Amino acid sequence: MVVPARCFVHPPTFRLVPGAAASRARAGLAALSFALAALTPVVSAAQPSAAADGVQVGKPSAVARLVPAEQLERMAGEQYAQMMREAAAKNALLPAEHPQVQRARRISREVIAHAQRFNPRAAQWRWEVNVIASPQINAFCMPGGKIGIYTGIVEKLRLTDDELAMVIGHEVAHALREHARERVAKGNLTEMGAGLVSSLLGLGDLGRMAVGAGAQLLTLNFSRENETDADLVGLDLAARAGYDPRAAIRVWEKMGAASKGAPPQWLSTHPASTTRIAEIRRHLGETLPLYARARGLAASALPPYVSNWGDPIP
C-alpha cells in the first residue's frame, strides 16, 4: 500500500521570552501531548464475531476516524484507475483472459467472500483485481478494495494457489482494517506536532530535523503493527476460503530467501521474516480448524502442507 509522503511545514524560528510566550509554550505543549496521545495504539476488546472462532483482533485505531473513509476510498479509486491506465499504455496490464488474471480473480473472489466479517462496509466496495507485468515482488489492496498483483511476486516466488491466497488475504486485510486511513491520520498529527515543537522551542531547522526523525520512527512502529494485524486477518480470510494457512509460512520463507540484504527489523516497515513466521505459527491453532472445516475435514486429519519449495510443513 502506497501512502503519500509527508511534507513538514517549516514554521518561522523565534526565541521564547517570559510571560505570554511561556503561556503559549505551555498551551502548545499541552496540545502536542494530546496529539501524541492520539498516536498511541488503541487497546480495546476483541471484536466479537458471529461464531467466536478464528483470529480475534482489536478494533481498528480510533485515530483513523479523523480521515473520512469515503474521501480516502474515492481518492484511492482515482489513483488506481490512473495506475491501470498507465500500465495499459505500457502494455503491462494483463488482459482479463490471461491465466494469471483469471487465477488472481478466482482466489480473490473466494477470499473477499469473507471480508464483511472484519469490515461491514466491504459489501459496498467496488472490488477490482488486476495483474501488472512487472518484476517487482509486490502486491497491494488500496482502500475501497482495489487490488493489484505484480507478476514478479507470483513468478519469482513460484506461488502456489495457497500461497497466493495468503498474499491476497494479507493485502485485503490492510484495506479491511483501514490501515492506510490510520496512517494518513497519524501522519497529519505527526506533522502538526513536529511543527509545533520546533516553533515553540525555537529550535530552527536542527530542531525540526530531530523531531521529524523521531516522529518517523514512531510511525514506522505503527506500520509494523499494521503488518502483523494484516498477517493474522489475512490468515483467517484465506483459511475460511479453503486455503491452507501454513502456506503463509512458506511465503515468508521464500520472501526471506529473495530479500537478502533487507534492512534490520527496527527500521523496517515490515517485521523480519523470522518474526512473522513465529507469529503465524502461534495462530495456526485458530486458523487450521477454519481451513479444515472449509475442506470438510477434521483438523487432526489434515496432511502436511506441501509446496514446490522446501520441506513439508506439518
Tell me what you see in this structure.
The chain has 314 residues and is mainly α. It has one domain (62-301). The protein is 54% helix and 4% strand. The chain has a three-stranded mixed β-sheet, sandwiched between helices. The protein is globular, with a radius of gyration of 22 Å. Mean pLDDT is 78; it is low at 1-36, 38-51 and 201-222.
For the secondary structure, the number of strands is: 3
Mean pLDDT: 78
Give the number of domains: 1
Order of helices and strands: HHHEEEHHHHHHH
Number of helices: 10
The span between the termini is: 32 Å
Major sheet summary line: 3 strands, mixed
How many whole angstroms does the radius of gyration measure? 22 Å
What share of the residues does DSSP label as strand, in percent? Answer: under 5%
**Which regions have little confidence, pLDDT < 50, spanning 5+ residues?**
1-36, 38-51, 201-222
Q: Rough shape?
A: globular
The computed structural class is mainly alpha
The percentage helix is 40-55%
